[in-house]
Amino acid sequence: MYKIFPVGVPVTGRNLIGRKKEIEEIGRSLEIGQSVIITAPRKYGKTSLIFEMLNQAKVKGYFTGLVDVFGVLTKRELAERIVDSVLVNRRIRHAIKRVKENIVNAMKSMEFKQVVQDFEFILGFSNYQIDEEALLDEALDFPEKFARKYDKRVILAFDEFGDICKLDGEALMKKMRSKFQLHQNVTYIFSGSQETLMKDLFTKRKSAFFRFGRVFYLSGLPKADFKSYIIRSFNREGVEIDESCVDDLLYKTDGHPYYTQLVCQLCYLNVKRGKERVASREMEEAYKKAILLERPYFEEMEISLMENKYQLLLVRQLVYDEGSAYKVKGIDKQYIYKLIVALQKRGIIKRIDRGKYTLTDPLFKSYLELRNEK
Ligand SMILES: Nc1ncnc2c1ncn2[C@@H]1O[C@H](COP(=O)(O)OP(=O)(O)O)[C@@H](O)[C@H]1O
Ligand SMILES: [Mg+2]
Questions:
Q1: Is 16 left (phi over 0), alpha (psi -120 to 50) or beta?
Q2: Does 1 reside within a domain?
């Protein structure tokens, strides 16, 4: 379905801008059974890209599954999500919930009964006496066994994979790797927003997932594609828009998918009430409104930066002068370097050139600018 400036939901198909190269290359990797890793800061379109890849895989006749690791607190929960996501391919939904509620009822479904005949362990989820480690062992191999049973290839995606580290760190990662690498019929997609963590996990020699797959880093969307999309979308609704204010917006957001869409949506909602033309004033108003909307998140970021006075000072300085990071008054160079490494690790700043850093989040940068002006 066509939507004007969709935000807050993954976008696919006609609503997905750019990412042609990524889609093609990831598609080719999956085709030859090569797992892939997608990493980018929050709201850069990781989940959207996963949805798109899985949709395309479905069309090609593959089984697919999406395991959202975000907020998973226990190994049992992880196991449940894996099993559920795979069973959807047999049109069995919320299998685990049904098993937990009432096995007799759940077994009334022919499809479910059949699956349980082959994979009895699924019934174990109803019993809390059963060790979660045992359930997880079964669940991790389930996609492969399922693929073999139905003679299909499976593409299984783990979204926000970095969160798994919080469960049992190294041991769990090692276990997953040792199992996944034996899977002949499952190809994996991992995505995560803690970029450094993801990078380390898949590229450091000592890491559990070293060289498991090819890593894709998502950047902002191509400005030309975004620009024509924005102009087209406004025009389609009968609203004229100045090209220059679109350029300005894309310059400020650096093609950030979510923020750009959000500003455009707010702008559209505003002009809908009577106006027929968008110029820089309308766009700027919407930009400020977007900052206001995101404020709770920015405030939280600021508080977390305040843990260390110098950290916040450094970030504030970067807002104004991207090249001067090494010259913050009152702090010695070594310490600044330490702070920079830590901030990079958290994904708050990124390197743009030698000795030059900038904030990863363009709206957070604007927020800090506005605050400093007050
Ligand atoms: N390729 C894209 N084309 C258009 N909008 C996008 C694209 N990728 C992301 N977005 C916008 O960003 C929002 C967040 O995307 P999402 O895929 O949830 O990001 P992530 O998973 O990285 O946090 C979407 O709701 C949409 O507004
Ligand atoms: Mg996501």
A1: beta
A2: no
Residue 105 to residue 234: CA distance in whole angstroms: 51
Gyration radius (Cα) of the chain, Å: 23
Tens of pLDDT, residue by residue over 297-321, are 999 999 999 998 889 989 988 888 7
Are 26 and 215 in contact, with CB atoms under 8 Å apart? no
User: In this structure, what is the dihedral angle of CA atoms 161, 162, 168, 169, given to the nearest 10 degrees?
Assistant: 130
Encode pLDDT of 275-284 as tens digits. Answer: 689 999 999 9
Q: What is the number of structural domains in the chain?
A: 3
Does a structural domain hold residue 66? yes
Number of H helices, E strands in the chain: 16, 9
Evaluate whether 280 touches 244 at the Cβ level (below 8 Å).
Answer: yes
Q: Give the rounded distance of the alpha carbon of 111 from its chain centre.
A: 33
Q: Do 169 and 17 touch, CB atoms closer than 8 A? A: no
What residues of the chain score a pLDDT lower than 50?
Answer: none
Q: How many residues does the chain have?
A: 374
CATH number for the domain spanning 258: value is 1.10.8.60
d(Cα 326, Cα 16) in Å, to the nearest integer?
A: 40
Residue 269: both structure tokens together: 């909602």
Q: Kindly state if the Cβ of 351 falls inside 6 Å of ligand 1.
A: no
Indicate the top mutation candidate among 3, 16, 48 to test ligand 1's pocket, ranked by most ligand atoms within 8 A of CB.
48
DSSP letter at 96 equals: H
Tell me which residue has its CA closest to atom 5 in ligand 1. Answer: 257
pLDDT of residue 201: 87
